[in-house]
Amino acid sequence: MKAGALTNALVALLAIVAAAAPAVAATPADLAQEVRAAETAFAASMAARDLDAFAAHLAEEALFFGGSGVLRGRAAVVAGWKPFFEGEKAPFSWAPDSVEVLDSGTLGISSGPVLDPSGKRVGTFNSIWRREPDGRWRVIFDKGCPPCDCGEKP
Q1: Residues 6 or more apart whose Cβ sits within 8 Å of residue 22
Q2: Which pTM does this prediction carry?
Q3: Which long-range contacts (CB under 8 A, 24 or more apart) does 44-47 make?
Q4: Hey, which residues does 99 pair with through a beta bridge?
Q5: Which residues does 82 contact at the CB level (< 8 Å), separation at least 6?
Q6: Beta bridge partners of 143
Q7: Where would I find the beta strands (DSSP E) of 6-95?
């Protein structure tokens, strides 16, 4: 084997080994920060009026619970939420105040207030996030409820 071919073969082998090696284990606190960042970016998509960015945060099989029933799948959620993205100003906003992640790093939950444009709390959101094979966190379940103190930090 020529030197160039051997070098290419070694580089390919190293790439395969690196891809198969386990990643450095993140702590639950690190993973919670990842979910918090994903939720914050998800909420920012509404403020920016960017439906495509909103859709990018949804798992293909996402379920969103709402007043008119359950929206099943990314396409249905995007279609159901499209009216919320019409107009210059968002009809509501949200931000996580509580985030937890399983020690396995596969699922996380975020919860927090939903605010109307004047800043009045009108609800509470609860989102379940799943770490996808590509490493990104995506929403798999989302359900809001009226304002409550259901386990939220004081």
Answers
A1: none
A2: 0.79
A3: 46/84, 46/85, 46/90, 46/92, 46/93, 46/94, 47/90, 47/93
A4: 110
A5: 51
A6: 65, 126
A7: 58-66, 69-72, 93-94
Largest CA distance in the chain: 71
**Could you tell me the domains of the chain?**
26-145 (3.10.450.50)
Grouping H, G, I as helix, E, B as strand and the rest as coil, residue 3 is helix
Q: Which amino acid is at 94?
A: W
Q: Phi and psi (nearest 5°) for 147? A: -55, 135
Q: What share of the chain is helix, strand, coil (3-state, %, to 5)?
A: 35, 30, 30
Cα–Cα distance for residue pair 32/102, rounded to 1 Å: 9
- The token pair at 117 is 């444009």
Nearest CA among 79, 128, 82, 136 for reference residue 108? 128
**What would the pLDDT profile of 59-99 be if each residue is shown by its tens digit?**
999 999 988 899 999 999 999 999 999 999 999 999 999 99
